[in-house]
Design a protein that fits this description.
By secondary structure, the chain is mainly beta. It has 2 helices and 8 strands, in the order H-E-H-E-E-E-E-E-E-E. An 8-stranded antiparallel beta barrel has the order 1-2-3-4-5-6-7-8. Strand 2 (34-44) and strand 3 form a beta hairpin. The protein is elongated.
């Protein structure tokens, strides 16, 4: 029993000592009426994994909007530098996305059809981490929806996140 307690204590301590971040995509919030919140946990100095949740509040009549109404996107990032405040990274992701695609009917009004799909993709970006834990990351990439014929072929993954590392 004593050994089990020691193992649990060591595992708990190693998990709580890992760096973690919580972030908000301010570009989406300010420009597109969309909220995207991300959580990222570092495995080591050069690797992390995380998840992003997106909710789109923009109406279909908007000039520019995401097709996705909701998306849940787990990701893995590899950082190419670890010795400075500025870090360049590459990202692989899978996005489970839900939305509406505009369907044009000849001679009639456009209609919207709901879809659910999964996109596999890549992104690249740059992250700044201050000494106090404030973070800013900018990234861009795209994924390809794989399963539904009603969904858009390409799903964008772009953002300007601000957050806090703890």
């Amino acid at each position: 029993m004593k050994k089990l307690f020691i193992v649990i204590a060591i595992l708990t301590a190693s998990i709580t000592q890992a760096q973690q971040e919580i972030k908000l995509d301010i570009f989406d919030a300010l420009v597109l009426k969309t909220i995207e919140i991300s959580y990222e946990k570092y495995i080591d100095e050069t690797s992390s994994f995380g998840i992003s949740a997106l909710i789109n509040f923009e109406k279909n009549s908007a000039d520019f909007k995401y097709n996705e109404k909701r998306a849940l996107t787990p990701f893995f990032r590899h950082y190419f530098t670890s010795d400075s405040n500025w870090n360049f990274f590459g990202e692989g992701f899978f996005s489970l996305n839900f939305g509406e695609k505009e369907m044009e009917i000849l001679g009639g009004p456009s209609t919207y059809e709901d879809y659910t799909d999964g996109a596999l993709g890549v992104a690249v970006g740059l992250k700044y981490v201050s000494e106090g834990g404030f973070t800013v990351d900018v990234y861009g990439g795209a994924g390809r929806n794989l399963f539904s014929e009603n969904s858009p072929i390409v799903m964008p993954r772009v953002g300007v996140n601000v957050g806090w590392r703890f």
